Amino acid sequence: MQTKPPNLSTPKPPNPFSPTPYLKIQEALRTRVIRENQLPNPIKYIAGADVAYDEEAQTMIGAVVVLDAETLTVIEEQHAVVPITFPYIPGLFSFREIPALKAAYQKIALKPDLIICDGQGIAHPKGVGMASHLGIELDVPTIGCAKNRLTGKYDKTALKKPRGSRQSLLLDGTEVGAALRTQDGIKPLFVSIGHKIDLPTAIDWVLHACNKYRQPETTRRADGLVNRLRRGER
Description:
Layout: H1 20-32, E1 45-54, E2 59-68, E3 74-83, H2 93-105, E4 114-117, H3 130-138, E5 142-146, E6 166-171, E7 174-180, E8 189-195, H4 199-209, H5 217-230
Helix pairs in contact: 2-3
């Protein structure tokens, strides 16, 4: 039986803004990350999540797209438009985007078994990026799958060209993720534990979802949806 996750995010920052309370929340979140598999068996549905901004209107669009885990076909998609209430603060970016993602997720009828996030998991300077934050908030297994490295180092010369090649991403000698080649000869993605999953399993799922392109279908579909909505399309 799943227990309801604690509300570790704060709805609206005070004015004037101070990062101190959010750094404390972030530290509490870091200690709650589960780095082992607590996945349902079988996994039937996976999801992608993304956010797009309308700076003029000071709103953001959060989207969650659910795919069939085997075929990667879209099963359901939902979105929510919410006001931007958190400033852009490097290292605290998840506090800015989580409200929109949670609002979209709450509309989903067919809840996913796993979410692949376009962002960092534990491969984050504070050990808890957006993927970990979202996983804890929703009590759902998540994977961080980012286009760019935020922290840690890997051996670029040892990363081979074929799809599936990987190198450990190390921070102070500790493995926090992997640089993963998802297609032959292209730039790697950076995969890390989000919540309730281990790294080898996370890598396997990212490779499965990257069946044609560098980015997982989950990310591509969610990104496509928020950008269509931002342009007024559907």
